Each structure stands twice: as C-alpha cells, then as structure tokens.
Amino acid sequence: MTGSTERTTDPAACCDGTADQASPVPAPRMWTVDEHLADVLSGVTVLPAIELQLLDAQGCRLDEDVVATGDLPPFDNSSMDGYAVRTADTAGATGEYPSVLAVVGDIAAGAGDLPKVGPGQAARIMTGAPMPPGAEAVAPVEWTDGGTGTGHPAEAMTAPVADEEVRVLRPVRAGAHIRRRGSDIATGDRILDAGTLLGPTQLGLLAAVGRGSVRVRPRPRVVVLSTGSELVQPGEPVGPGQICDSNSFTLTAAARDAGAIAYRVGGVPDDAAVLRAVLEDQLGRADLIVTSGGVSVGAYDVVKEALQGGEGSVDFRKLRMQPGKPQGFGMIGGPAGVPLLALPGNPVSSYISFELFVRPVIRTMLGASDVHRPVVRAVCPVELRSPAGRRQFLRGRYTPDGRVEPVGGEGSHLVGALARANCLITVPEEVTVLAAGTEVDVVLLTA
Predict the structure, then answer these.
(1) How far is residue 388's CA from residue 402's CA, in Å, rounded to a whole number?
(2) What is the rounded CA–CA span in Å between residue 54 and residue 48?
(3) CA 50, CA 151: separation in Å to the nearest integer?
(4) Is the dihedral of CA 411, 415, 416, 420 positive or negative?
(5) Three-state secondary structure readout of the chain
(6) Contacts of 235 (CB under 8 A, 6+ apart)
(7) Mean pLDDT of 133-160
(8) Residue 100 contacts by C-beta under 8 Å, 6 or more apart in sequence?
(9) What is the rounded average pLDDT for all residues in the chain?
(10) Among 25, 164, 171, 386, which residue carries the largest CB count within 10 Å?
(11) What CA–CA distance (Å, rounded) separates 440 from 351?
C-alpha cells in the first residue's frame, strides 16, 4: 500500500508488555493537507511511454523530441492559381502593353509530368502544384486576361487548357507566389520537444512531416464511482429519501478536464460485497480509481467496510481541513496495485478533495509540469471566519483586478454556489478570523 499507516503505541505500557487499563487511548492522528498530499504523490509516477497513432495521441505529451526527416514543403510549389512564368518575359508589362505568352501546359496539384517553360512561354498552374522547370515566378490569374477568348480570368482556371496565349498585365518579380522547398521546415529541424502537449495543430504538424504514430506519455485511465443506496441516475424518478447522483458526473468531468480518460460507473449501493465486485471488475481498465462517499464513521460507510484492513488495503484518515475532513488512500488489486483515492460524499467536499488531491495525481501520471492549480494573492473585502486548527477552503469568485469574494454558504451540499465559483479561498489552520480587506491565497480553478 502506498498510503502510510499510523501505528499507535500506548505510552503507559509496562516493560513486561502489560498496560495500565486506566490510561487513555491516544486520539487518532490528524493529517495536514500537505502531509496527505505528499503521501498520495509519493507512490505516483509518470505512466510508461507507449506508441500511439496520431489521433489516439491527442491530449498526451510527447516522450521524444521529433526531428524532421524531410523538407516542408517538400518541393517548390505555387501559392496561387495563375501562370508559371519567366520574370524576363513579364518585364515592363502593363494593361495597355501586356506580355503575350504561349501556354505550354496545365499543372494541377499532384502533377508529376511537368512541362518546361522556355522564353516567351507560360504554364497554367494551380495552388499547391509543383513549379515546372524554367519558371521563376507565378503570375496570379488576376494579373492576366485568363487566356485568349476565355472571358473572366477566374473562369479560365476551371476550363481545360487548349492551345492558347495568355496576356500578363503587370511585371512579376522573381520568386513571387512560390512556396520554397524547406521554407517551413528543413530536414533535421527539431519540430517538437519531448513533453509537448499534443493538440490539433501539433498533430497536424506531425502528419505534415509524415509521422503516422508517435511515442507519448499516455493519458491515465481513471474510473470514477459514487456509493450510496440513496442514489438514482439523473432522468430517473426520485423516490422518498433518494437523490440524483451528481458526484460521479462532477468527478468524471473533472478528471477529463485534468487530462485523463475517465470512465463513470453508476452509483454503487451500500453493500461491501457489491462494491468489492465492482472494483474488481474495473481494475483491468484503471490506472487510478476515485470513489466518493462511504469514508466517514457512519453505520453504512461502505467504502471503509469494503477496503479497510488486510494486505493492499486503503488507509482512512482525518485531515485538518474543511470541507473534506475524511479521506482514504491506498493501493488495491495485487502486487502491481492501482491507486485508489476515497473522497467524502458531500458534493462540495468531494469536488474540493478532487482538486487538492486527485488532480495532482492525474497531472503527475501525465508527466505534466503544472501539477498543481495556480495560486494567486487577492484582497477579500469581507470578513472571513474559520474553525481553529483547520485549513478552510471557501468557494469564491476571483476577478482580474485582484479581488475575491466568497460564493454561497459554508454547507458542503451547496452545489449551486459551487457552480458559480471560479476559485477556492484558503484560510490557514492557525487563523480563525480574517478582517475585511485582508490579502488571501486563492486557488484558481480555471486557467
């Protein structure tokens, strides 16, 4: 198990192993937020690199530097529809005194058999088509009459070429409207660095240089499930004492937002055997498992019942934080082990716990440099109160002018306020009152 296990020694124990029965049992250790996070991250590493096809690699980070093995563009080509010409043949051309050139061929994109352009000649050429030998520039069709008797220049580009002439109405400088070979990327250029996040433009670049697959750090597969016999799926009838399962949707979306491939499992009833069976079934597709609910001290705290005790068990602990005091962490599924984080069931507690503990795990597995959410300082114009010895995380609205205000009340069930928040206001453990106008630490939930 990756999670630490707290061992309690009775200080009143005698040398012969007996203990004074009247001596009080020490209270369970209370973990700080930082201690719990450090323990969670201590057993998490970047997932092993794998080779993926380009579209499967979206959202992953490169595990290699990518070097171009060819030029881009791979050949000189036209950037315009028009006529490939020799510059000397267009010198001094005007509308009144155009350069009249014989059209010797038609070059489409992908053409391989190219006509040679000699003195007094031109070749009709389409955008992206290779430049023919002898040509030094492209005269856009708008600079010509489109060919003898063809009417509007644009119409000339859609008609087959016959034996014809074209009138060029202005001079064309050397190299005009040509995309030179290697002008974007040259052979040997390092085009992407290891660690680069692969998005649409990076995948397009890899395809452009001929890479069909790439070695990446894969996105972790995260299985999310909620526990509680009171849970029903959204859209189904809600009976007496029942509520819609929102946690699994929130946490699955949050895992995807963090960069994971997340699988949502429907609510699991308060039955330890059922939960163990569900977890066993999910282990094959999980790099990380996240549960919500069943981690406190109630009679139906099924996660603790199912996972506490024995080899590879989950360590359940209490943290000096509000909300989110009860937490669980450990490895399940045999020697290799899959990390499991057990979060409290109240929606606000669950989400804040995810942001503080689960998100850094996902980002670490990804090999991301930005493991933690950014923290900024902001002025809070209202007084804040916090329980002694707890680090409090209040939902807030942060504005770019450096101000932040709490949103909603302190209840850990208030999902309406959570949906309006864009940050968490942090009140340290040693502080019980912060006067209005005090600067506070703010965890930004949106980049």
Answers:
(1) 27
(2) 18
(3) 58
(4) positive
(5) CCCCCCCCCCCCCCCCCCCCCCCCCCCCCEECHHHHHHHHHHCCCCCCCEEEECHHHCCCEECCCEECCCCECCCCEECCCEEEECHHHHCCCCCCCCEEEEEEEEECCCCCCCCCCCCCEEEEECCCCECCCCCCEEEEHHHECCCCCCCCHHHHCCCCCCCEEEEECCCCCCCCCEECCCCCECCCCEEECCCCECCHHHHHHHHHCCCCEEEEECCCEEEEEEECCCEECCCCCCCCCCEECCHHHHHHHHHHHCCCEEEEEEEECCCHHHHHHHHHHHHHHCCEEEEECCCCCCCCCHHHHHHCCCCCCEEEEEECEECCCEEEEEEECCCCCEEEEEECCCHHHHHHHHHHHHHHHHHHHHCCCCCCCCEEEEEECCCEECCCCCEEEEEEEEECCCEEEECCCCCCCCHHHHHHCCEEEEECCCCCEECCCEEEEEEECCC
(6) none
(7) 76
(8) 165, 166, 167
(9) 88
(10) 386
(11) 21
Q: Which amino acid does the sequence have at 81?
A: D
Tens-digit pLDDT profile for residues 171-200:
999 999 999 999 999 999 999 999 999 999
Tokens for 85, please give them. Answer: 């010409």
Q: How confident is the model at residue 310 (pLDDT cuts 50, 70, 90)?
A: low
Q: At what angle do helices 33-42 and 359-366 cross, to 10 degrees?
A: 30
**Average pLDDT, integer, range 109-132:** 96
pLDDT digits (tens, 9 = 90+) for 35-93: 999 999 998 999 999 999 999 999 999 999 999 999 999 999 999 999 999 999 999 99
Structure tokens at 349: 């507690």
Which residues are CB-neighbours of 375 under 8 A, at least 6 positions away?
Answer: 426, 441, 442, 443, 444
Q: Name the token pair of 360.
A: 């850094």
Whole-angstrom distance, CA of residue 373 vs CA of residue 362: 12
**Measured distance CA(138)–CA(142) in Å, rounded:** 11
